[in-house]
Amino acid sequence: MFALLNKWASFVRFPHTVFALPFALAAMTVAARDNRGWPGWKTFGLILAAMVCARTCAMAFNRIADRKFDALNPRTASRHLPTGQISLFSAWLLCLSSGASLIAVSYFLNPLCFYLSPVALVVICFYSLTKRFTDYTHVFLGLALALAPVGAWLAVKGANVSALEILQMATLALAVVLWLVGFDIIYALQDYEFDKSHGLHSLVVAWGQKNALQAAFLAHLFMCGLLLAFGLLCRFRIAYLVGWMIIVGCLVLEHWIARRRSLNWINVAFFRLNAVVSAVFLIVTVAEVVFQGGFRLR
Predict the structure, then answer these.
(1) Cα–Cα distance between 274 and 119 in angstroms, integer?
(2) N or C terminus of the chain with fewer C-beta within 10 Å?
(3) What contacts 20, CB < 8 A, 6 or more positions away?
(4) Other residues' Cβ atoms within 10 Å of the Cβ of residue 101
(5) What does each C-alpha distance from 157 to 43, 162, 163, 198 come to in angstroms?
(6) Are 120 and 154 contacting, i.e. CB atoms less than 8 angstroms apart?
(7) What is the mean pLDDT of the chain?
(8) Is this prediction's pTM over 0.90?
């Protein structure tokens, strides 16, 4: 049983949930600020379930859509669909059941989340097709990931959001988009030759590796500015500022690795450093909400 669960978890790269989930939980915490960041066990559990369902659906669809390219790429040829470890029927079953589960979970959150859930499914799955026709595929993936904090915020508040909260949500969502754009460009360096020879689009292919890295750096630069603005909008203090500086340091190190090290180091920059970025953001946001930046319980 463990081997079976591990196979399906690796199929959808479940550990990569660490990128979106902390931002969703941070947004949930800020939205539930009046209750020391806690929305209640029911809402918390439903948010977790929605995140798992949404990401499983998106990743399963991605594997299905890319299975022929994966079979041709030496880096991805050992994935489950190209090697027959998982059947195409089973992959579709997982994708469709996860999507249906997201809609069902959203129903128990609130009407707004329920009505928006089909739109969210379209957005998170559409990314997998964008490499075929646009160089800005990274932006579409960023939009898909940015739905996580927005969805978590709306899961707590529903339609009862103020103008300030809308501004806070938009600032955080745009920061997530730029964060994703930056590190996905770095990740795409691994497939530069393959994508170029097979007619697949990305900013790395369109602009070349050096220019694309400059674009990634600018994206992360603006992302840092937006995260700082988010903290100011939320009236966060010292804990958030310390976390923000750690995040900036991680991103600087990521770009140093991308420029100075071999492609084998990209997975280090992609996974470990960005996992630290999202985890630190969650920790300092929770600290600010619960302890008001001065580590005093409300």
Answers:
(1) 27
(2) N
(3) 51, 55, 145, 148, 278
(4) 17
(5) 10, 10, 13, 45
(6) no
(7) 91
(8) yes
